[in-house]
Design goal:
- 48% of the residues lie in helices and 23% in strands.
- It contains 15 helices and 13 strands.
- Strands 6, 7, 8, 9, 10, 11, 12 and 13 form an eight-stranded mixed sheet that branches. A five-stranded parallel sheet has the order 2-1-3-4-5, sandwiched between helices.
- The radius of gyration is 24 Å and the shape is elongated.
- The relative contact order is 0.06.
């Protein structure tokens, strides 16, 4: 597989060494730049590149400034960030790149080992090979899958941290394609968002999930249900009426149904969605803020929203046992939930 790359580093010795490494690893074209400003010129004149190895610490225009340039250009390169900075700053730079919607292939401390670059490129090649082997997800294909009943809810349990007893289940959209198998929501949710199908998808999953839980209730298996709502769905003024009618049709008590909205979508669409959220809560449904800690909530906004539950983002939960700062963030979120009388939920727990 032909590969083009750019090495951005202020140290000439490092540029030469990384250029040689990339050539040995299969790069047919390698450009170089000594700082972010020169890299921007090279990108305009010789780009795009498949992979960019970017040093963060450079005199003049540094790597952080070049990330902004890549974001403005909507660049699709795979990034390998390198630096002799401490790991916390590297993690922060990676988070910044991802916030700019850039694809970070990996973060490598200096000195950079050829084997480490090779491992990252191998993962990239495997990802690309898999992508080309799959049929593209289109609006037409997604719409047809919903009509055929191929998009179904998978149920994730939520358990009490003290007792381990199941508390509820969360409905997650999954696409069971007859020929391709299970299609990840990462491939079809953005398509639904961009092309106006997200409301239809939300109602489709809500209907299937409520029907399943209603049947389980009839069979003696009582459980609460949680369903994700898109910010775009919240803009529909008739959404509460459609959802209460659906719950009644399947014999579900609204007090046992929670709708989850991501923190960033809540804040970004607050004026349009506050009336919808308030009506949902007045009808007896519960509301949860999902991925808490990754958006831009303020205490006043949390107080304003009629929430029942706060879900702490898994990026903090997963690191809490090893990273003191992540643990402090989790503890602060739990304390905040208590302050506002909310149930706190840890996302992504996989072990004791």
């Amino acid at each position: 597989m032909s590969l083009s790359a750019m090495v951005v580093d202020d140290d000439e010795f490092v540029r030469v060494a990384l250029t040689r490494q990339m050539t040995k690893l299969g790069a047919s074209r390698v450009a170089v730049a000594a700082d972010g400003e020169e890299a921007a010129r090279v990108l305009r004149n010789e780009g795009p590149f498949d992979v960019i190895l970017l040093d963060l610490m450079m005199p003049g225009s540094d790597g952080i400034q070049f990330l902004r340039c890549l974001a403005d250009a909507h660049d699709g390169s795979d990034l390998i960030l390198t630096s002799s900075l401490d790991r916390k700053l590297l993690d922060t730079a990676e988070s910044l790149a991802r916030a700019h919607a850039l694809h970070v292939l990996g973060v490598l401390p200096k000195p950079v080992r050829s084997s480490a670059i090779g491992e990252l490129l191998a993962k990239r090649n495997a990802r690309i090979a898999k992508r080309y082997s799959l049929e593209p997800v289109t609006v037409e294909r997604l719409s047809a899958a919903m009509k055929a009943g191929h998009i179904v809810p998978y149920f994730q349990p939520k358990v009490c941290a003290r007792t381990g007893a199941p508390r509820s289940i969360e409905a997650l959209a999954r696409w069971e394609d007859p020929s391709e198998g299970l299609i990840s929501p990462a491939r079809f949710i953005p398509i639904a968002d961009r092309h106006g199908l997200i409301d239809e998808l939300t109602m489709h999953i809500s209907q299937r999930a409520m029907a399943a839980v209603g049947q389980w209730n009839d069979e003696g298996l009582q459980t609460d249900l949680e369903i994700n709502l898109s910010a775009l769905s919240l803009e529909g003024i008739d959404l509460p009426d459609r959802l209460i009618a659906m719950a009644c049709r399947h014999g579900l008590d609204p007090d046992r149904v929670t709708f989850e909205i991501t923190e960033s979508s809540l804040i970004g669409h607050l004026s349009q969605s506050l009336d919808t959220l308030t009506r949902l809560r007045m009808m007896g449904f519960h509301l949860a803020v999902d991925d808490f800690g990754t958006g831009y909530s303020t205490l006043s906004q949390l107080k304003l929203l009629p929430l029942s539950e706060l879900k702490i983002d898994l990026s903090f939960v997963a690191r809490a046992t090893k990273d003191a700062e992540a643990r402090e963030i989790v503890e602060s979120c739990v304390a905040l939930a208590r302050q506002f009388g909310l149930v706190s939920v840890a996302e992504g727990v996989e072990d004791a």
